[in-house]
Amino acid sequence: MATAKSRMLALRAEIARHDHRYYVLDDPEVPDAEYDRLMRELRALEAEHPALVTPDSPTQRVGGTALREFGEVVHGMPMLSLDNAFSEEDVTAFDRRVRERLELPDGEQVEYNCEPKLDGLAISLTYVDGVFTVGATRGDGVKGEDVTANLRTIGSVPLRLLGGRHPKLVEVRGEVFMGDAGFAKMNRDAEARGDKVFVNPRNAAAGSLRQLDPSITATRPLEIFFYGVGSFEGGSLPPRHSEFLAQLREWGLRTCPEIRVCTGVEGLLDYYREIGRRRPTLGYQIDGVVYKVDSLGRQRELGFVARAPRWAIAHKFPAEEEMTQVRDVEWQVGRTGALTPVARLEPVFVGGVTVSNATLHNVDELTRKDVRIGDTVIVRRAGDVIPEIVRVILERRPRGTDVVQLPASCPVCGSAVSRIEGEAVARCTGGLVCPAQRKESIKHFASRRAMDVEGLGDKLVEQLVDAGIVASAADLYALTAAQLEGLERMGEKSAAKLLASIAASRETTFARFLFALGIPNVGEATALGIAEHFGTLDSLQSASLEQIMAVPDVGPVVAEDVREFFDSKRNRDVVNLLLAHGVAWPAPTASKSENQPLAGKTLVLTGTLPTLGRADAEALIRKAGGKVASSVSKKTDYLVAGDSAGSKLDKATQLGVAVISEEQLLHLVR
Ligand code: I6G
Questions:
Q1: What is the pLDDT of residues 384-429, one digit of tens each?
Q2: Does 286 sit in the ligand 1 pocket, CB within 6 Å?
Q3: How many A from CA of 109 to the centre of ligand 1?
Q4: CA-closest residue to ligand 1 atom 4
């Protein structure tokens, strides 16, 4: 019995340590199989000695039965809210108030602890003698719901604090959230099962934490960051908030990795800008940053006003979602004839800019969202992403609205609109007869990453096409100064400048030229792959579907698009005209196989390499004559795998593709 007990204690401690390494430090020490073995051993011992099962045992994370309703928890200390700052002036005023109340001499700057403000759910967890006993939602700040059983299922919540020196009681506070990757996977799985999907990670986190059945919560990818303290008994707090956060980490409580101590208003605003820049890649949703006076002594001196501390403020990012009305839904015709429904909106300030248009992507999306003229909608603009309509507020739909229909004919040229069964995209069949397609294909041809015709902006292209001066990209090279000077806002000087840049664009590369042609589904990377593979236009034009599919990353759909493009007489005429106007590129250099140890080889990269960044590794491979593909297939010669390699490694193993390390890659290249 005594040996069973000591073995159980040792197993619990070891499993808790592995949970901490896995969920909190993101640095697992042992493979899953070893972890499972420890858990199996502990479960077997506990089954033999049920009297020795304790609530802090890792086997007890998902326990109990579904509740009928949540119990109530009165917070030992109220969970307050934070004042908000919406501008730099608000932050400056906050810092001034802090310095004035503390009666700091002019010029003395305050140190603040700064961290992102997560868009999740505030919660409080009480540890008595280091053991997790009660967890509650914020509720109305005075009392919340008892979600202890659900919080226990979150891997990063320690059931017993690590280390020593635990106070008699500590109530830690933090935010439960769902990371972007976990949210996306959960919704993908739900969709595959035909279940309802969640609108955003916050709703998903709230819905998951407020499940009456903890075994459901246990399946949801919930995470937690701790940021503060409520009740605290039988111990002493360090002098600074930043030190308290370090203490939380020592106890195994996960804190946000972006926490910094910054000095003065300038320090705060730099932090705000930096987090704002990195916001899209943090991996979780935030709606601002929080600044707290770092000295706990000063926090006490500053105290509270109404329901918010005077020593902290949330500096919010501009709202990313707003409500507005749909004035109209129009159909835009793109370069390949694709019809995109675009909602014309009552202008609204969202995500830091005024938005008056939002894309509805395609007919399916329009049907799914059922956006109608006159509807009140939620518009989202996050970062630099094109604004989109999240959903219609059906309760506000006026009477007598009609479903928006896909037009039978192109709104620009009147040609028939066709939609292939099963495809999301409907297309105008007018081809280059359609002025809209013509304009878009010329804009694309001239764009910076294609032929890079400086000074040929969208408005100018539209004028040239509308005036009937230019019908295809080839006509650009036949433009005269007299034709240009007749256009709006085009003087002698600018006409000469534009002609010079059109002339300069003749000298290009095969890859840029291919990209500029605007073949459906041929982006820059594909164009580069095709150009490298075939070397010359002649060999590409005469290639069979199978030969085109031999290019890394080119599948049957892209190969068919390429073949179809060159099979069209109209396209071949434009290409020949372009060549006749002197568009040219250097001939491919003869293969220098002794300097190109990876010539003819296709490599795929996965995971984090020990020393090389992704771009460096790709450049190295290309320089050695190899090709870099984005996914593993039978055509892959080597998979270069680093740390945290994922599904590509599994696929390579399945297909018998050679897997090499960075060191082996460097060896091959040398
Ligand atoms: O709602 C909150 C989010 C984040 C907070 C908070 C926080 O710190 C990072 N801190 C406090 C003190 C309060 N609410 C009241």
A1: 678 999 999 999 999 999 999 999 999 999 999 998 877 778 999 8
A2: no
A3: 22
A4: 117
